[in-house]
Design brief:
alpha/beta; six-stranded mixed beta sheet; 18 helices; 25 strands
Length: 540
């Protein structure tokens, strides 16, 4: 039977071994690789309807998969003024002034990617941006997407004039007189002001999502583990999939928040496996803490401000019980755990669940920004996957520990940042991702960061924790074979072999021999999803 897609003159890179296969061509049909061979053998499988692409020696890898991203919320949060390139307050003020000048009277200003390090030793508060935002309703998302700054006018329009009580670890930060400073911590507090701003239409939101997904495919991504299913997310995926316009294979984990009762847990279990051809609901996302930068992580000892002392769940024992329920039902969990106390509690919860029911469910911990030595071995012992985002370390911390994250933690804990090397050496499966929109999604940049651990904007700067760097092969595995293992799909994804998915990324050269600092600029020549090109460079 003729194959709809044939790739010739290729170098087929096997990430399991780090070597090139002896074959030089492959054929794909019905979404799977159907044959490997030499050019003559595979060309014989083509007919007049086959898409035949001569790769001229380009390198084919299994499709790159982002282990942690937020497509729908990312498409929404990255709409507006990009502040991620601002490195000091003067730069932020200048960018805001330019945007304010272009606003129509009464319009809201939206910004994203604000780095708390620009405030230096000053508090992160709206007063630092006055008078640029005088009378302007503005919402500025901090880079961690767990906090934002609201201008005085935005707070006024939202009716937020003092502290509020929340069921989860959220806060309207106020001064000694009880007046809001503009800093809002975690979703529940941010939503108070977000609701007052004009909202985009559903059509606008879907168009932004579609554009973001197309750009991801052009960057070489064939899949992603989407860590939310909020709002219209699933409906958008269904609509794009049905129309043939979904360019990534998505594994979606809906949230389980504090306050979820037994009926809510049963509903999450019932949703498992639902989806379409290219997306499905698989797993549940939970939060054990917030972030170190805004003082809402859960640390074993307080940070330098006396903060980050509590779990996201008011009663962590309830989290443990729910993990046990999900485990017994065969549902994998992915828990946001940044601080050392949070990571330890998740490991304890998984260990307790496994004692009660020794099924083969694979659980994950997301982020793992600082952990002590005695937790490292437990990942492999419990089969817990380490889902990590190395570009967070690259772009939001500094080698000399003068950044906000490091100063909050102190030298001891800042020195054990993003321990990718130690976790790998301890036998853990390390899955790599971007956490977009927190950091850029191009996968070659993520793999490069895992190797060089330097600021993306200035690669001449020293690396943060170079001893924690991964090798080129380990970084590639983190977005191929390890991503497949995290999804329980290692029998059909992450390899170049007949019967495996025809999800492929084609690069101009070998990512294993390309220098880490050059890797982000390596051209992506072709991206193939389910046997269908989703991106094709004019050179092929």
């Amino acid at each position: 039977m003729p194959a709809p897609l044939v790739l010739l003159s290729a170098r087929l890179l096997d990430p399991a071994t780090g070597t090139f296969l002896p074959e030089t061509a492959l054929a794909a049909a019905d979404g799977k690789i159907t044959a490997l061979g030499d050019d003559r053998e595979i060309r014989a499988l083509a007919d007049a309807a086959t898409t035949v692409i001569d790769l001229k020696g380009a390198v084919v890898t299994p499709g790159l998969t982002d282990g942690h991203l937020h497509p729908v919320s990312g498409a929404e949060l990255t709409h507006g003024l990009d502040l991620s390139g601002c490195t000091d307050l003067d730069g932020v003020r200048a960018a805001l002034a330019g945007e304010v000048a272009a606003l129509t009277p009464g319009a809201w200003l939206h910004g994203w990617g604000l780095d708390p390090n620009v405030f230096g030793d000053r508090p992160v508060e709206a007063a630092a941006l006055a008078p640029v935002l005088d009378g302007v309703p503005a919402l500025l998302q901090l880079f961690d997407a767990h906090s934002m700054l609201a201008s005085p006018r935005a707070l006024e329009l939202a009716g937020v004039d003092g502290p509020r009580a929340f069921d989860q670890a959220a806060e309207v930060v106020c001064d000694a007189a009880g007046r809001p400073t503009g800093l809002l911590l975690e979703d529940a507090a941010c939503a108070l002001v977000e609701r007052a701003a004009p909202q985009p239409t559903r059509e606008e939101r879907r168009a932004r999502l579609a554009a973001a997904l197309r750009a991801m495919a052009a960057a070489g991504l064939t899949g992603g583990h989407a860590m939310d299913a909020n709002g219209d997310s699933l409906a958008f995926y269904e609509e794009l999939d049905a129309a043939g316009d979904l360019p990534l294979r998505l594994r979606v984990a809906p949230w389980c928040q504090p306050g979820t009762d037994d009926d809510g847990v049963r509903a999450l279990i019932a949703r498992q496996g639902t989806g379409g051809r290219l997306w499905r609901t698989a797993g549940v996302k939970l939060f054990m803490d917030g972030t170190i930068d805004n003082g809402t992580a859960w640390l074993e000892r307080p940070d330098c401000h006396g903060e980050s002392t509590h779990a996201f769940w008011p009663d962590p024992a309830v989290y443990t019980r729910i993990v046990g329920q999900l485990h017994a039902a065969g549902v994998p969990t992915a828990t946001h755990a940044i601080g050392d106390a949070a990571v330890r509690h998740v490991l304890d919860a998984v260990e307790q669940a496994r004692r009660a029911d020794r099924n083969g469910v694979r659980h994950r911990i997301e982020h793992i920004e600082t952990v002590p030595d005695d937790t490292l071995r437990r990942f492999a012992e419990l089969g817990v996957l380490a889902s990590m985002q190395p570009t967070h370390c690259c772009d939001f911390t500094r080698a000399d520990h003068t950044d906000n994250w490091s100063r909050r933690l102190g030298e001891e804990r800042a020195a054990r940042a993003w321990r990718c090397r130690d976790l790998t050496d301890a036998g853990a499966t390390v899955v790599l991702g971007s956490d977009w929109p927190i950091a850029p999604y191009p996968p070659l940049g993520v793999m490069a960061g895992a190797r060089h651990r330097r600021p993306t904007r200035d690669l001449d700067q020293p690396p943060h924790g170079p001893e924690q760097a991964l090798t080129a092969l380990e970084a590639l595995r983190g977005m191929t074979v390890h991503a497949a293992r995290a999804a329980g799909e290692e029998d059909r994804a992450g390899r170049l072999a007949p019967g495996y998915r025809a999800d492929l990324t084609v690069l101009a050269d070998d990512p294993l021999t390309t220098a880490a600092t050059d890797l982000p600029d390596l051209p992506v020549l072709l991206t193939v999803l389910d046997g269908r090109p989703t991106h094709r460079d004019p050179r092929v």
